[in-house]
Amino acid sequence: MSAESLERRTRSYLSNNVPQIQDHGGYFEIEDVDEESGEVTVAIGGACSGCGIAPMTMRAIRKRLPDEVDEISKVTIRQAGGPRAAVMPSKTREMEEMEEYEDYSPPF
Fold first, then answer.
1. Count of CB atoms within 10 A of residue 43's CB?
2. Beta bridge partners of 74
3. Which pLDDT score is estimated for 98?
4. Domain 3-101: CATH class, spelled out
5. 91 and 46 in contact (C-beta within 8 Å)?
6. Residue 86 confidence (pLDDT)
7. pLDDT at 69
8. What GO terms are given for molecular function (predicted)?
9. Which positions ≥6 away from 87 have C-beta within 8 Å?
């Protein structure tokens, strides 16, 4: 499988199974696909920053994407940079560490 195909399958999964990102004013971009190792890096930004469910969305993507796209072994999620950068990345990182989010599973 080519890296382009793996990227296309990753993008398709996120677009079709996590529409809340775009529906709520956020966005995602696939920053890197390592075909050999199966590692994928996804950046999220826009309205995702500081959103109360962003940490749960990020955790769900990290967990579910490898289950849905067989060739993926690891998913790294990071805050997007540039003009569409997340507004409050430190708050989102803090929220990811909160125990309240440990067992929550978003409905996607």
1. 21
2. 39
3. 62
4. alpha beta
5. no
6. 46
7. 93
8. iron ion binding; iron-sulfur cluster binding
9. 49, 50
